[in-house]
Amino acid sequence: MVNPLNAMTPASALLTPALPASQWGQVCLVGAGPGDPELLTLKAHKRLQQADVVVYDALVGAGVLDMIPAHVERIYVGKESSNHTLPQDDITLLLVQLAQRGKKVVRLKGGDPFVFGRGGEELATITDAGIAAEVVPGITAALGASACTGIPLTHRDHAQSCVFVTGHRKDGTYTLDWPVLARPNQTVVIYMGVGSLDGIVTELVAHGRSPDTPVALVRHATHAKQQTVVGRLDSIAELARTHAVKPPALIVIGEVVSLYRAEQEAVLRQATKSWA
Ligand SMILES: C[S@@+](CC[C@H](N)C(=O)[O-])C[C@H]1O[C@@H](n2cnc3c(N)ncnc32)[C@H](O)[C@@H]1O
């Protein structure tokens, strides 16, 4: 595997000059799903077999990486929130440069490329450069977490809508519409929010969401090491500390979480094993 710190010159292809445009390769943004390799789409699997090089993130599961043929070059450009390995602009430039050297490039991202994945920025730059591009959707973490915990995101009796938001603060402040998020009978799934759980709870309660609203934290959804912690808005921050819940995790807020049963989650896991 290539050293991520040296990621601007990792691919041997970059040692060669760019080819004429007629010989350029292409880039496919592929969603790897939330972790369980069996949740990869057939199209995603096919693109992994067809690629010359796969540029992948930290959240791509090991089981998915195992599906990449040995002859295909892999470049890790993973980002953790406090440790950006390679700036986003450099990642996008890398994709363009590889394609300009005739490579079939798979840009493999956890979940779905267009859900908090910066896939939109990458696609715009790639197509602006005149490079052929494709997007293969993946199962986003919220859907994986819902299936694996048995918490439906909508339910006729509990939630008529569901919203996905990011809890990541830019310059220390949120740009979230708290009055909308605080409405009852809707499910709010927060990505990248566990580090700022206290602030999220404070805002939701201040804007009218009931303190007894059920909340689930789901870490490593769909992985064997999945961790689920369930409480209420007024207890979840303390529970997160007690259970040491860290990223990658989702916060699922809403009445649907009252349907969670630990025994049912265990049944769901067991059922998956028994199909094997
Ligand atoms: C940069 S976002 C990428 C989201 C991804 N594009 C998707 O569609 O799932 C990273 C955040 O997604 C969430 N996440 C991704 N995979 C997860 C998983 N398997 N279990 C729980 N949360 C996950 C976490 O909140 C994590 O901090």
Helix-strand blueprint:
Layout: E1 26-31, H1 42-50, E2 53-56, H2 62-65, E3 73-76, E4 79-80, E5 83-84, H3 88-100, E6 104-109, H4 119-128, E7 132-136, H5 141-149, E8 161-166, H6 178-181, E9 186-191, H7 197-206, E10 214-219, E11 227-232, H8 236-242, E12 249-253, H9 262-275
Parallel strand pairs: 1-6, 1-7, 2-3, 2-6, 8-9
Antiparallel strand pairs: 4-5, 9-12, 10-11, 10-12
Helix pairs in contact: 3-4
The structure holds S-adenosylmethionine.
S-adenosylmethionine is lined by residues 34-35, 59, 109-112, 115-117, 140-141, 144-145, 191-192, 218-222, 247-250.
Characterise this structure.
With 276 residues, the protein is α/β, with parallel strands linked by helices. It has two domains: 136 residues, Tetrapyrrole methylase, N-terminal domain (Cobalt-precorrin-4 Transmethylase, domain 1); 134 residues, Methyltransferase, Cobalt-precorrin-4 Transmethylase, Domain 2, CATH 3.30.950. Helices cover 29% and strands 21% of the residues. It has nine helices and twelve strands. Strands 3-2-6-1-7 form a five-stranded parallel β-sheet, sandwiched between helices. Helix 3 packs across helix 4. The relative contact order is 0.14. The N terminus is likely disordered. Bound molecules: S-adenosylmethionine. The site of S-adenosylmethionine has 25 residues, from helix 5, strand 10 and strand 12.
